[in-house]
From TrEMBL:
Signal peptide: none annotated. Its main location: membrane. The keyword Transmembrane helix applies. Pfam families: Lip_A_acyltrans. InterPro entries: LipA_acyltrans. Keywords: Acyltransferase, Cell inner membrane, Cell membrane, Membrane, Transferase, Transmembrane, Transmembrane helix. The chain crosses the membrane at residues 20-40. It is found in: Cell inner membrane. This is Lipid A biosynthesis lauroyltransferase.
Amino acid sequence: MSKSSKKLYTQHFQTRFFAPQYWGIWLGIGLLRLLALVPFRWKFAIGKILGKLLYRLSPRRRRLALANLKLCFPEKSATDIQRLLTQHFESLGISLMEMTIVWWGDHKTNHQNAFERKLVTFIGEDNLRNAQQQGKGVLILAPHFTTLELTGLFVSFLTNYHAVYRPHDNPLMDYLIAKGRSIEFSNGEQVEPVSNANTRQMLKVLRAGHSMTFLPDQRYRAKGHVEVPFFGVKAKSNPATSKIAKMTGCAVVPTFTRRLENGHYEVEFLPALTDFPSGDDYQDTLRLHHLYEAEIVRNPSQYLWVHNRWNLKDY
């Protein structure tokens, strides 16, 4: 999609965004913009401090994350769960600093030689390339880890792609998120996020043989959901991955991003799923859940535990 193409996200800048009701958002964005100027070597340390503040200031989210962790890791001691909870909030704080990189980083003006290219190592890059060579489009599955903001940026260093996102309920936040996640690739092509409600555009992208990132793992209560165990507990889930693959014939490549202790990242592309879709949405979703579970067990603090995935009532 060229710069002159019609935007695919829903919100555009409006003069009403200057109204007092949005001043709190502008203040928060202003603070993040200032933090974007901080040298990268300080970003992890500052992010952990922000995470500790979030831990103190968000008791409801803290209780939800704690309940989720207890649900998924019943074998862990109370001490281990508490340690994991603390680490998770530090990870959330770091994700805010990572957002400043995605929204205002060097890649925005220098994608070809961006500083951020030095931060990542790719594993299984051939799995992505082989899937793309089939020519039927590639659905890059990227579950909700706290590294999610950077996943899209890192993938853009390998290939042009379209990102699917859920529009924010607040129109200013929706505008800012979509604008921040827009990427101008090295060839001058600018690709903007596609709303997850724009099914026609999503199918069009894949049928044209292009790649698209997709976030399939959050709670889904709409018509057509399937209840499938996730960490052994039934969870209302979205079978869209199977349905999209069936309608387009695209390859499905699970992708995981990991934040390492040395300030580096790795992005792993698993082989494209074989015999997918199987024709059974339940079994397909269960298969995906098992892949997510394996990665979460490997890297538990970086999964998004503050989301009410299991629709818990009391926490």
